[in-house]
Design a protein that fits this description.
Length: 520
């Protein structure tokens, strides 16, 4: 106040209230500040006290926590140590197991690879593949080894079966190609699947016929309706096999059989049954001839008895005498007719195999050579005789007279078949266990129907020339009584050959005979 209220050189005056007002405000602010400062100081003192208490509590708690943490850490450390030991032991165990597993896996893998290689080698067809070497004790691998052995045995068996099947297939193919019977297989639509060469030959086709459908393949066979077969216009399945016999122009007989397969296809079989057909015809003819022979035998006996009565009665009449010349001429005519009837009855007995035959051992070639002059006269001037007689043939037990008569009859028939002239050839030869004599001509020949009846009594193709039809029947009877067979080969326009075959070293009997053969 002194500084602010006293001017230089003036007297000191007390300050006014207005002048003291700012100072009072300052003093009041200072007082308030000091009070606040004292309050803060007291608060700080309390804070220091609380801080000391808090620090003490903190130190106490920290000691407790530290001790607890130390205990827990020690416990945890012990646990960790134990865990580390366990982990180390487990790791070592796992490593050991892993090593053992890897070794086992490698061994098993090698065994599997070895088994696989062996099986692949077997599958590729290699031979002498042994059992893979495996020394483990794994049950699965041991089972695989057993499976490998079973597979090897199966492969070996399959290989053997395959070789057998291949050999069988080759045999079947060879047999299929070379078999005497023809075979062809067609599918359900009638198209060819396979066929052998023989079936093409038997049906008269060429090699290009392999591509023909069934209907066209069977077109030459008139006995089969091809339109009803698979591929035909009226095709329908057939439940039963079909079999027909087709006779060709050259006399060959082919049997054709058709059968249905399970898939609807057709199997065609063809075979040459000419010989079988011929034998069947011969058997039928033999039965027919046997009946005729029995009838001829009975008739010859009746005729012989009747002629015996006639000749006996004539003898009685001639003894009485007193006949006129006319009556004597009539009696002579009757006797001549009776003699003719006796000769006819004798021929009929020969046909019926009842004529007594006087067997003797003869050589047929010298006998025929001695007959050459007689045969030349018999066949006439328009025909020539050729003899082809084999030498050194074994002798036969025959009736010489009936043998000569049979050959003479055959030569007469041969000459009659060549009205314009030709050549008659007489041959002798040995065939298997038989001695044969054949008489051939180059005449008009005979049809099959005529050949079938040629040996029948009273059958002749020369009715306009007065033929009686007994010549071949007499030959037939003689051959049967001699134990031989007679065969005719003939075709219209190609001449005829009659072959007589007599067995060697056979003593024939009058009541026994071998079957007669007839071939056209």
């Amino acid at each position: 106040v002194a500084e602010t209220g006293t001017s230089a050189g003036s007297a000191a005056l007390p300050p006014t209230d207005a002048e003291l007002k700012p100072y009072e405000q300052v003093f009041a602010a200072q007082t308030s500040y000091l009070l606040e400062m004292f309050g803060v100081r007291a608060a700080i003192a309390r804070l220091h006290k609380v801080a000391r208490e808090l620090s003490l509590a903190t130190e106490t708690q920290s000691g407790i926590v530290t001790r607890t943490l130390n205990n827990d850490f020690q416990s945890t450390s012990a646990t960790l140590q134990r865990l580390l030991v366990i982990v180390a032991v487990a790791s070592l165990l796992v490593l050991t197991i892993a090593i053992l597993s890897i070794r086992s896996a490698i061994r098993v893998s090698r065994g599997i690879v070895s088994l696989s290689s062996g099986m692949n080698a077997l599958a590729e067809g290699q031979k002498d593949v042994g059992l893979p070497d495996y020394k483990g004790d794994e049950t699965e691998l041991l089972d695989l080894q057993q499976a490998f052995l079973a597979f090897k045995e199966s492969v070996d068996r399959v290989t053997r079966l395959r070789r057998t099947a291949e050999a069988a297939a080759r045999t079947i193919r060879s047999t299929f190609r070379s078999m005497n019977e023809g075979i062809a297989i067609f599918d359900a639509t009638g198209q060819p699947v396979t066929m052998n060469r023989r079936v093409i030959e038997l049906l008269g086709h060429k090699g290009s016929a392999r591509k023909l459908p069934l209907t066209e393949f069977l077109s030459p066979i008139s006995e089969i309706r091809t339109e009803t077969l698979p591929g035909g216009a009226e095709a329908r399945p057939f439940s039963e096999p079909l079999s027909v016999r087709h006779r060709q122009g050259d006399g060959t007989v082919t049997e054709i059989s058709l059968s249905r397969q399970s898939d609807g296809g057709v199997v065609l079989l063809a075979r040459d049954v000419t010989l079988l057909d011929r034998r069947e015809a011969e058997a039928a003819m033999a039965l027919r001839l046997d009946g005729i022979m029995r009838l001829t035998h009975q008739l010859s006996h009746e005729v012989g008895n009747t002629i015996g009565i006639i000749t006996g009665s004539l003898g009685l009449l001639e003894r009485e005498g007193g006949f006129s010349k006319m009556q004597m001429r009539n009696i002579a005519r009757i006797r001549k007719a009776a003699d003719r009837g006796r000769s006819l009855a004798s021929s009929m007995l020969t046909i019926g195999r009842q004529q007594p035959i006087r067997f003797s051992r003869i050589e047929i070639s010298p006998v025929l050579l001695a007959m050459a002059d007689v045969l030349e006269i018999a066949i006439g001037e328009n025909c020539s005789l050729e003899l082809e007689l084999a030498e050194g043939l074994p002798p036969l037990m025959l009736d010489p007279e009936l043998f000569e008569q049979s050959v003479l009859n055959l030569c007469l028939n041969a000459a009659a078949a060549m009205p314009e002239g030709g050549e008659v050839c007489v041959k002798t030869f040995q065939q298997d266990d038989a001695i044969a004599v054949s008489v051939s001509d180059t005449g008009i020949g005979m049809s099959r129907e005529e050949v079938d009846k040629a040996f029948e009594p009273y059958f002749t193709t020369r009715t306009d020339q007065g033929g009686a039809g007994l010549g071949l029947a007499v030959v037939y009877g003689f051959v049967r009584q001699s134990g031989g067979t007679a065969t005719i080969f003939s075709e219209p326009g190609k001449g005829t050959t009659v072959e007589l075959r007599f067995p060697r070293d056979l003593e024939p009997e009058a009541e026994e005979a071998l079957p007669v053969e007839e071939v056209s």
